[in-house]
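Action item from last meeting closed. Structure (890 res):
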């Protein structure tokens, strides 16, 4: 009996597929398929083809090599095909290439440039059927993107030539809410790769680890182009609700924010576990170290899940004691001042975090202690990891310390490239004044020397400190080795970010000069001067290396801000009732750096208006100039005063931080509606109409900011002269001076002290008008008194007629109130007095107040609020008063 096996095409296809799978499992993937395709360099159709030859050939070689193949070099290819003939080559040429290279397939194509576009046409020829090539194309708008396009066509060629062994396509299936791109980014296998089940299994694990799926399966289907791979996923249900229970000591919304689990998102158990950790950390940051958090997941319906966080808060545990082990030189109290972690205090912990253990702060404390010892001569000291023990209801922290020997400062010297006298350089070193080695001071000295060199053109100078220990006497000798590098010059100054402010407004405040020697101090000064203009939110002046090592560009990068402002103020007094003050100004008028402002003051008895124009840099010089026009009308108890005037101002710097200001004012004043029983001083002033005066002022301002500074001072002195050769009816001289100082203290507090005084002299009898007398009271002198309410009285009428002498002072402490908002509080005492024309200076009797205030640079502008209490109230005086002013920007 005989039997026969019928071999059909389908049997051959199945057998070949099975054989391929066996080969793929048995042979490493890198060697599973030998090269069967000849890759011919592309024909280039472009206006300048020679510029594309090298980058295109390199891109093709690289893409082919990534498939463990090799491409035909262009030199060899020119002997196989005619790049100037028919393209792609005819079937006869394809067969010749196949015979000479020994490959079954020939991959050949052309690159065409059309304007900014590049078109890549590619064909893969089967040597047995060269008349029916597999053709495709790609396009790109960028030469930089050409490598990616070439890589794609190579991958497709390899895939076609090895259809039975390569991956034709990869796609996810079953995903409804998770983006397909997010899944594909987790899969390393790409179309065109050799089919590798091991690699696909790793991809399956990676997709599953995303945490969004209950199940992931791979489906592989054979196609004419290779394997079609599907990652079929089954998504987890959505989170329908998040329930939190047990929150008694911390608000539920804060716990919910810490958990960060949103509803209507796909359930991810890993993220739920992370939420448990974050909630525990939240409770620990508040002192609840025994808090237990349990997460449970339930499924009310097939597609919805409920996440429940059950919290057992436990009792609050605070730091009860902090100790140090191994410290013999410094007391525990000294070391406690160094660290931020503190113990519980009944009178402070309710307001601050004192006594709450924060592990990140604790690690920083160990580093602070280490730096403290390093800065006090203990260069071999070690501070170990703090040990935290929980006993009963308290935490006990121990810092282990190994002090080691303490080293004194020995000989301090410099060597290397010295551009200045050696003794001068050594004199700048502060480490010489330290009895023990201080790492921080040594670093600062290194910076000082570097700055000296950088200010003299050596931008790349390097200062290397060398510390040599000697066990005898426990001393360290310090040698600072200097390498100056090359001289560097400023090349170009580039200004960017200014869309409104003109370049010259910026350049005139730059100390950096194109072509000048590099100077780091000039860069710092330029930054400060631009910041002080008030036109910009951010200013950075940064050196930028160029192709020439001895030249550096300077980039001035600015971010402009609104420079238009309006300020408003309101108040109340028994004399004027409700008062309103306002100002509209533009500090950078039309981007020229000039200032234009209109100021108004309105009340039931006053109307004052002033228009002012200021050019801070006339002709881009250091001279400022301005013009003022004003009209003031005030109704007093016994008369009405109306003044109309104009003035010009000029100012310029003298020496560092000192400025001189000059001004001329001409003003016409009329006093009307004078009561018959008014003071003689007032009646005499009615005859003084024209006031022609000059004024000289000297000002030194070192404040770090104009509103609520924390350091620096402002000192001023002025003299005003009216009449004489200037003409006019008024004849007087007026001298004033003021000095304000701000000193930073602990806990971000600031100590402020101010003193001011003035005196006026009549150059001719009765030619000092009453409105040029001194008056005190209000926000800018003695708070707690109404504005202009502190004044000598006429002996006959009892009217306030001002004085020719005055002085006042302020002592205050400014402290953070709401630090994140920039709001500050103030406790102050103001004092001073005004003396009549016939009175002498008497510092034994003066007005004095004490009070509190608020300073806030609010979104609407600077805000000041003050309440002052009269410490020595007289019969006709108020016991206290409020003052208020506010400003804003637009």
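Sequence:
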């Amino acid at each position: 009996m005989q039997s026969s096996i019928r071999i059909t095409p389908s049997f051959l296809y199945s057998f070949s597929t099975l054989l391929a799978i066996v080969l793929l499992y048995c042979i490493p993937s890198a060697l599973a398929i030998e090269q069967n395709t000849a890759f011919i360099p592309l024909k280039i159709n472009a206006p300048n083809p020679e510029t594309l030859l090298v980058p295109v050939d390199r891109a093709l070689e690289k893409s082919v090599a990534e498939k463990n193949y090799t491409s035909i070099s262009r030199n060899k290819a020119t002997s196989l095909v005619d790049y100037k003939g028919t393209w792609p080559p005819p079937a006869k040429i394809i067969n010749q290439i196949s015979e000479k290279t020994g490959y079954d397939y020939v991959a050949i194509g052309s690159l065409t440039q059309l304007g900014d576009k590049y078109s890549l046409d590619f064909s893969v020829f089967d040597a047995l059927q060269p008349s029916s090539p597999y053709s495709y194309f790609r396009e790109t708008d960028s030469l930089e993107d050409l490598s990616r396009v070439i890589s794609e066509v190579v991958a497709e060629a390899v895939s076609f030539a090895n259809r039975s062994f390569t991956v034709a396509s990869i796609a996810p299936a079953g995903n409804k809410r998770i983006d397909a791109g997010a899944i594909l980014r987790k899969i390393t296998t790409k179309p065109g790769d050799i089919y590798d089940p091991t690699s696909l299994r790793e991809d399956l694990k990676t997709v599953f680890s995303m945490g969004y799926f209950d199940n992931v399966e791979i489906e592989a289907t054979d196609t004419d182009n290779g394997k079609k791979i599907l990652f079929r996923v089954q998504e987890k249900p959505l989170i329908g609700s998040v329930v939190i229970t047990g929150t008694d000591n911390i608000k539920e919304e804060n716990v919910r924010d810490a958990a960060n689990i949103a509803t209507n998102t796909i359930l991810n158990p890993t993220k739920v576990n992370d939420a448990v950790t974050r909630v525990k950390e939240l409770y620990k940051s508040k002192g609840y170290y025994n808090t237990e958090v349990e997460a449970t997941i339930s499924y009310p319906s097939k597609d919805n899940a409920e996440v429940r966080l059950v919290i057992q808060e436990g009792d609050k545990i605070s730091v009860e004691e902090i100790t140090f082990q191994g410290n013999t030189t410094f007391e525990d109290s000294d070391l406690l001042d160094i660290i931020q972690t503190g113990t519980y205090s009944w009178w402070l912990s309710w307001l601050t975090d004192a006594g709450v253990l924060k592990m990140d702060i604790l690690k920083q404390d160990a580093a602070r202690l280490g730096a403290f010892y390093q800065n006090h001569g203990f260069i071999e000291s070690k501070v170990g990891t703090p040990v935290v023990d929980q006993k009963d209801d308290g935490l006990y922290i121990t810092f282990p310390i190994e002090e080691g020997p303490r080293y004194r400062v020995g000989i301090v010297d410099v060597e290397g490239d010295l551009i200045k006298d050696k003794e001068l350089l050594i004199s700048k070193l502060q480490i010489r004044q330290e009895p023990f080695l201080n790492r921080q001071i040594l670093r600062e000295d290194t910076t000082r020397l570097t700055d000296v060199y950088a200010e003299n053109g050596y931008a790349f100078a390097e200062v290397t400190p060398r510390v040599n220990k000697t066990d005898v006497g426990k001393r360290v000798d310090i040698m600072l080795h200097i390498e100056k590098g090359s001289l560097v010059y400023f090349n170009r100054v580039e200004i960017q970010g200014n869309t409104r402010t003109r370049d010259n407004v910026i350049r005139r405040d730059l100390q950096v000069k194109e072509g000048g020697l590099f100077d780091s101090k000039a860069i710092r000064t330029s930054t400060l001067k631009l910041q002080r203009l008030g036109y910009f939110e951010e200013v950075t002046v940064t050196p930028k290396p160029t192709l020439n090592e001895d030249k550096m560009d300077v980039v001035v990068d600015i971010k402009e801000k609104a420079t238009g402002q309006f300020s408003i103020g309101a108040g109340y007094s028994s004399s004027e009732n409700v008062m309103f003050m306002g100002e509209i100004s533009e500090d950078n008028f039309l981007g020229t750096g000039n200032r234009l402002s209109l100021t108004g003051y309105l009340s039931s008895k006053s109307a004052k208006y002033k228009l002012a124009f200021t050019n801070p840099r006339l002709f881009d010089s250091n001279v400022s100039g301005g013009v003022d026009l004003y009209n003031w009308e005030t109704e007093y108890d016994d008369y009405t005063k109306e003044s109309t005037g104009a003035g010009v101002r000029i100012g310029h710097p003298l020496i560092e931080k000192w400025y001189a200001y000059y001004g001329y004012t001409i003003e016409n004043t009329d006093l009307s509606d004078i009561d018959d029983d008014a003071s003689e001083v007032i009646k005499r002033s009615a005859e003084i109409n024209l006031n022609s005066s000059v004024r000289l002022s000297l000002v030194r301002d070192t404040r770090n900011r104009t509103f609520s500074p924390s350091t620096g001072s402002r000192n001023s002195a002025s003299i005003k002269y009216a009449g004489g050769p200037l003409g006019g009816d008024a004849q007087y001289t007026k001298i004033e001076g003021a000095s304000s100082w701000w000193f930073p203290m602990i806990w971000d507090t600031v100590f402020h002290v101010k003193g001011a005084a003035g005196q006026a002299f009549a150059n001719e009898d009765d030619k000092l008008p009453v409105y040029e007398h001194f008056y005190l009271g209000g926000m800018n002198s003695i708070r707690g008194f109404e504005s202009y309410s502190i004044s000598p009285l006429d002996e006959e009428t009892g009217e306030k007629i001002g004085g020719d002498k005055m002085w006042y002072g302020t002592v205050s402490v400014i402290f953070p109130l709401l630090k994140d908002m920039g709001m500050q509080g103030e406790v102050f005492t103001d004092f001073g007095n005004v003396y009549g024309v016939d009175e002498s200076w008497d510092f034994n009797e003066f007005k004095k107040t004490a009070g509190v205030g608020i300073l806030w640079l609010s979104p609407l502008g600077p805000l000041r609020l003050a309440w002052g209490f009269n410490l020595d109230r007289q019969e006709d005086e108020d016991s206290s008063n409020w003052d208020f002013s506010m400003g804003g920007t637009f």
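Note appended to the action item: Residues 238-312 form a domain with the Ubiquitin-like (UB roll) fold (CATH 3.10.20.310).
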